[in-house]
Amino acid sequence: MGGGTISSSANVQMNAQTSKSKAFAMLTLLFFMWGFITCLNDILIPYLREVFALNYFQAMLVQFAFFGAYFIGSLVYFIVSTTIGDPITKIGYKNGIIIGLVISSIGCALFVPAAQFLLYGFFLAALFCLGIGLTVLQIAANPYVAILGSPETASSRLNLAQGFNSFGTTIAPVIGGFLIFSFFGGENVLGADAVKIPYLGLSALFLLLALVIKLTDLPVLSSSEEIPGGAGALKYRHLVLGMVGIFMYVGGEVAIGSLLVNFFGLENIVGLSEGEASAYLSFYWGGAMIGRFLGAISMSNLPSNKKLATMLGTAVAVFLLIFGVIYTNTGIDIQTVLPFVGIMILNLLAFMAGKSSASRTLAVFSSVVVLLLLIAISTDGLIAFWAIIGIGLFNSIMWSNIFTLAIDGLGKYTSQGSSLLVMAILGGALIPLMQGALADWVGVQYSFALPIICYLYLFFYGVMGHKKTVNPLEA
To answer: What is the CATH number of domain 231-469?
Structure first.
């Protein structure tokens, strides 16, 4: 009889683990999709600019509408959570994800009438709706990934999921460009019709995914306890400092990426044309994919003797994948990118120095980024060129590590805290503007001094800002 009880208990644990594994597999697909669809904006901007004869300011309203939705959506969510209680904590993460998918599907579907009526404002409204849907997904899915297992491996799971997000951003320009500019586009296509079928297909895919998640038995992680109103999450000092961390990280990463083409075009660097420079952008953003997969392994429960071998094999495999994608479009020689391999080795050494700790790894990586920025500012030629590209590898784990450190111990305020962290994505809109103004004043190369401030703050957060201490307001 006792053996039957043990067997029954073991079966329950096995079923629970299987359910969590199934949930995580679903979530990695979500992360891939929103990485893919976010990067499609880079295809939309030149396409819509040509269709509507826009200037650069008008064309950049695409990003303003899309990323503005993150801030407004998470702000509204936070206000609701402070007045009537946290919505996702009440309805469950699964239902929150389904709602986000449905809203995203509506946003994609709105591209069809926008193209039909040929109204730029309609496109911006569709992008805003899509951004709201992805905001809900971010608020629900990030903490869901984090709490699907033990807190010690939360960063590992989030890094793995973010790795698939980066895979989406790496292949989206290739696939999206082919579909919009070639397969569904071309000289015989009128107006903005080339975006109709791709975005209608994405709309159907979002709906199908929502249906699959609805019918799949996933862990229902919601709270039955009373969720009081008020900004309870702000009582946690490490969350508030984490919000600043997300603001700084997203701002620094986007600011650097936004000026890379201009930096590569400087005569004292390598003087590349815009077409040539764009090929190397994939190494900056693809580096994040490599680092995130390595971060998932580094902060997992794998035995130490297996971690290094697994990380080495993964690094080589993902590098070859990125190189293959770029080679398909450019025919680039592998010897040209060997310095990137050297920076990958430095990245592995930094992971070893991080010792599988989210906070320690964040501190190590941010300090390396500061060093690479200083090299990019103070040197010329290929040294500065590869130093700035290498930053992508070290940006990789920052979102995941900051996020998991910031929501650790929030309990019933986890979703509210998640909405505040998503709101801090606003840094991606403000800091690039500040660096742009600085570039007008002191030049592009020296403007990279601004992100140094961002990464110095992240070093502080990794060393001590993440520690859970009594909020001074409550002391």
So the answer is: 1.20.1250.20
The angle at the Cα of 318, spanning 316 to 319, to the nearest 5 degrees, equals 65
Which run of H or E residues covers position 439? helix 427-442
Q: How far apart are CA 448 and CA 379, in angstroms?
A: 12
CA distance 139 to 95: 12
pLDDT at 104 > cutoff 70: yes
The answer to whether the 1-221 and 231-469 domains have the same CATH topology is: yes
DSSP 335: G
Contact at 8 Å (CB) between 395 and 420? no
For residue 258, the surrounding DSSP H or E stretch is helix 237-258
CATH class of 1-221: mainly alpha
Number of H helices, E strands in the chain: 22, 0
Closest alpha carbon to 126 in 200, 224, 35, 220: 200
* Cβ atoms of residues 75 and 423 within 8 Å: yes
| Whole-number Å distance between alpha carbons of 346 and 357 | 18
Domain boundaries, the chain: 1-221, 231-469
What would the pLDDT profile of 324-335 be if each residue is shown by its tens digit?
877 776 677 888
Asked if residues 240 and 470 have their Cβ atoms less than 8 Å apart, the reply is no
Nearest C-alpha neighbor of 393 from the set 350, 453, 454, 449: 350
What is the band of 361 on the pLDDT scale with cuts at 50, 70, 90? Answer: very high
